[in-house]
TrEMBL record:
Taxonomic classification: Bacteria, Bacillati, Actinomycetota, Actinomycetes, Micrococcales
Similarity section: Belongs to the metallophosphoesterase superfamily. YfcE family.
Record keyword 4Fe-4S present: no
Protein known as: Phosphoesterase
Domain Calcineurin-like phosphoesterase: 4-152
Amino acid sequence: MATRLMLISDTHVPQRARQLPEQVWRAVDEADLVLHAGDWVDLSLYDKLSRRATALLGVYGNNDGADLRGVLPEIARDTIEGIRFAMIHQTGAATGRETRMDAAFPDTDVLVFGHSHIPWDSVSPQGLRLLNPGSPTDRRGQSAHTYLTAVADNGQLTDVTLVRISPEAPTGTG
């Protein structure tokens, strides 16, 4: 049975936005599993996502304090529909990323990461898929705020889509 995924990172609530855009909350509602790659900033967003998401997997980021580090790991791993996922906030510089991550995550099919706020979708020399959803609240020079959706089904990751948030998207209440 297919699992609909929603990948998000670098939400920075309430520093960059008071709340996530309503478009993001709709995507959370449509997903079977939400993966958050860190920099939540405030525990209240974690609590809201935990209550609203069907299932949630997350890690802490460099801007997350002791409260979030107390409930989230630095690295999360899960096998979803036969696909071995790992998630971490920071992977270092873009140059050489694929080779470094091959060495760091040898038994992984898909690595989800954040930190840069720059969407990323690449495949390493060893076949590791690297995905960064960007940020739904702080685009840092990117043309749009973003997140990713995908489908995990029978050992295959399909329908990987970078979703741009509508500039007039209202802020949601979660």
